[in-house]
């Protein structure tokens, strides 16, 4: 699964990205994950299966959905704040299952 994290500038989500990557490795999950700022979404989404938006860019979700056409979800503030990789991966999987199902 290829996940694209989107935040205001791409910096705060890099911490979350590292935690998700580590969790995936420790649990033999095939996960590729990268973090970018909202302005880069239009040029960056094509190589990903799902986009997860940070809480601070929830107001941009409609735009993100329109430019990408792939499943988009918002991470909860609690999961984002502590980098709860397990819940973040569950959210991504849920978005993909709903797309396919």
Overall description:
The structure is a single chain. The chain has 101 residues and is an alpha/beta fold. It has a single domain, classed as Response regulator (Rossmann fold), CATH 3.40.50. 49% of the residues lie in helices and 19% in strands. The chain has five helices and four strands. The chain has a four-stranded parallel sheet with strand order 2-1-3-4, sandwiched between helices. Strand 1, helix 1 and strand 2 form a beta-alpha-beta unit. Helix 1 crosses helix 5. The chain is globular, with a radius of gyration of 12 Å. The relative contact order is 0.22. The mean pLDDT is 92.
Structural descriptors:
5 helices, 4-stranded parallel beta sheet, alpha/beta, 101 residues, single chain, Rossmann fold
**What's the number of extended β-strand segments?**
4
- What is the ordering of alpha helices and beta strands? EHEHEHEHH
The second-level CATH architecture is 3-Layer(aba) Sandwich
Instruction: Give the domain tally.
Output: 1
Share of helix, binned: 40-55%
Name of the CATH class: Alpha Beta
CATH fold title: Rossmann fold
The end-to-end span amounts to 16 Å
Percentage of β-strand residues: 15-25%
Rg over C-alpha atoms, rounded to the nearest angstrom: 12 Å
- Helical/strand content category: alpha/beta
Residue ranges: pLDDT <50 for 5 or more in a row? none
Shape: globular
Q: Give the spatial strand order of the biggest sheet.
A: 2-1-3-4
Q: Identify the CATH homologous superfamily.
A: Response regulator
Taking the sheet with the most strands, its summary is: 4 strands, parallel
Q: Count of DSSP helices? A: 5
Q: Report the mean per-residue pLDDT as an integer.
A: 92
């Amino acid at each position: 699964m290829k996940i694209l994290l989107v935040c205001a500038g791409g910096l705060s989500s890099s911490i979350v990205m590292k935690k998700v990557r580590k969790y995936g490795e420790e649990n033999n999950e095939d996960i590729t994950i990268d973090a970018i700022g909202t302005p880069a979404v239009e040029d960056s989404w094509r190589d990903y299966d799902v986009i997860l938006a940070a809480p601070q860019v929830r107001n941009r979700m409609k735009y993100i959905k329109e430019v990408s056409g792939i499943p988009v979800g918002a991470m909860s503030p609690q999961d984002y704040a502590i980098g709860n990789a397990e819940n973040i991966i569950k959210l991504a999987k849920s978005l993909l299952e709903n797309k396919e199902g």
